[in-house]
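Sorry, I am new here, but would you mind making up a protein's amino acid sequence and the tokens describing how it folds?
***
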Amino acid sequence: MKSFTKQENSWMLYDWANSAYSIIITTAVFPLFYKAAATKAGMSASDSTAYLGYTIAISTFILAMLGPILGTIADYKGFKKKFFTFFLTLGVSFTALLAFIPSDKWLLLLICYTIAAIGSAGANVFYDAFLVDVTTEKRMNRISARGFGLGYIGSTIPFLISIAIIILAKQEILPITTTTASQIAFLITAIWWGVFSIPILRNVHQNYFIEPEQKPIINSFKRLGKTFKNIRQYRALFLFLLAYFFYIDGVGTIITMSTAYGSDLGISSTNLLIILFVTQAVAAPFSILFGRLSEKFSGKKMLYVGIIVYIIICIYAFFLKTTIDFWILAMLVATSQGGIQSLSRSFYAKLVPKEKSNEFFGFYNIFGKFASIMGPLLVGLTAQMTGRSNMGVFSLIILFVIGIIILTKVSEPKIELSSSESIDHV
């Protein structure tokens, strides 16, 4: 394996940059900050969890609608970087803005969170599509998995600083409130995300594209319609998207709502933050390990492994009662969450036509985002109907079962079976 190029390193470093948002805003500090604000407003635990689920559903729906359209336009020469930069700026700006919203304004917090989430997820659409521009098919599994590994490692630094500030504030060692400590964490996230995004902005460029033409927006819609009409011609790609639609729903829901679920079980916010920190540290080597094992056993087989682990997680979560149980659950998640996401990204990248990478990653996004609507809604509705959050988590098991069944029908990209650089679209 030759050394990584400047473009590969710059691309991977963005995982290092935006993973701070994923852990601090999506998973750890913000959900707890919001839950505290909602509780202060007199809202029940199940209702606040449900409203968080509905908020996630709204933001993912908006991006699911925009993804394929923007992706199709971004396939024109020079557009990919512009769209990436716009969503990056949107996400960083509104993440920083979270630090200045009063803690008792829970609705305003959710609105700001929604816009920041759109920025983060929107930038990821074009970031994922840049994978075809920075490396070869033979190296995609390794590069994608190493990116996730760097993300887990990099996110632990601002996360550790943030939880240290929060814990010290709780113990009154620092002369600030826990509310202020959490708001400082939001600022740390925005600064970390913005600074470490500079390499990808400077060094990564769109190498595969469609030449500019007259009426680009109208022609983009025509191209999008034609692709949607003919997507079934790409049998492996279409089947993979269906499988991905189901299993990534469960993955995303567990990631985004884990702290809210732990809070409902009575686990203290301090314990939750420590558990999440250790989860990030453990997930880093496992993500890289998934990439290495995929070169020996194939990406598809390692996806099977990841999905099976998540089925076990859903079953175990149903019986969760103690902090130790949550520790075990978190370590199970750590073994597979990075691997299943990184290998899904690289597996799909091998199937798409390179010059239409944004367009096809737009479909990848819409399948993933529509799936992410279903999971949080399922958890939210079940939690409100039964008054038990564990029932919602357990119900996610069906999504993993359907996903793995469909995945068995997906053909392996030829590159994983030989040294050829061809792509199997059959």
Summary: The first helix runs from residue 6 to 27. The chain has one domain: 6-199+234-413.
